[in-house]
Design a protein that fits this description.
This protein has helices at 13-19, 22-34, 39-46, 50-62, 98-130, 132-136, 149-167, and strands at 9-10, 37-38, 66-68, 79-82, 87-88. By secondary structure, it is mainly alpha-helical. It has a domain at 9-139: Winged helix-like DNA-binding domain superfamily/Winged helix DNA-binding domain (Arc Repressor Mutant, subunit A, Orthogonal Bundle), CATH 1.10.10.10.
């Protein structure tokens, strides 16, 4: 896993269960992708009632995942933003129990569904909706390589450090011409891949 941030949010079991609710995960994702919004704006984007989004925003606030935007809002109007800190499902070195593992799978599943949905929208209609210049500046790529655990950890740490450094230049900027952009960094071993040199079924042959 990437090197922990000193200021990261560690989700306990209650927070994991709260975020495992599909609408809450989707709302947090919307705030991450599009910035601060009101409960009414979120309701319109997600096809929900403002009463429902208001309730779920308060639940997310209770677990330290969202907060009111102090720079926005007039009178009783409340703008909400994601708390700008990295989120980790478990503390480093902590071995989750069965309840935590189940809740974590629900959270990760919702995040992945939202991520895949956005990527599919881009692949299906990106050219028509954002234009060729944005398509040219984008990338959907895959790299395949044989790695040891230590090498995987090294690459993961370096990529996250680079991403933090580069993205940090533009965090929370509001400039003309900017639009929401997502950067996906997927680094993981293939679960059906073979470890080189392992004797599986009486054969140590490396098959590509």
């Amino acid at each position: 896993m990437p090197t922990p941030h000193d200021d990261e949010i560690i989700l306990d079991l209650a927070a994991l269960k709260a975020l495992g609710h599909p609408l809450r995960a989707q709302m947090l994702d919307e705030l991450s992708a599009h910035g601060a919004q009101t409960a009414s704006a979120l309701a319109e984007r997600l096809g929900e009632s403002s009463g429902a989004t208001s309730y779920h925003l308060r639940q997310l606030e209770k677990h330290g995942l969202v907060r009111e935007d102090p720079e926005r809002g007039v009178g009783r109007e409340r703008w909400w933003q994601r708390v700008p800190r990295p989120i980790s499902l478990h503390a480093a070195g902590h071995e989750p129990d069965s309840a935590e593992r189940t809740a974590s799978r629900l959270v990760v599943g919702e995040w992945q569904r939202n991520r895949q949905s956005r990527l599919q929208q881009f692949l299906d209609s990106g050219l028509e909706r954002v234009g060729p210049e944005w398509i040219e500046a984008s990338a959907v790529s895959t790299s395949n390589v044989q790695l040891t655990i230590e090498q995987l950890q090294e690459i993961n740490d370096e990529l996250h450090a680079t991403l933090d450094r580069v993205v940090g230049r533009y965090r929370n900027q509001r400039v003309p011409g900017a639009r929401p952009v997502q950067i996906h960094l997927d680094v993981f071993p293939l679960v059906d891949g073979r470890i080189q040199g392992a004797d599986v079924g009486g054969s140590a042959k490396d098959e590509q």
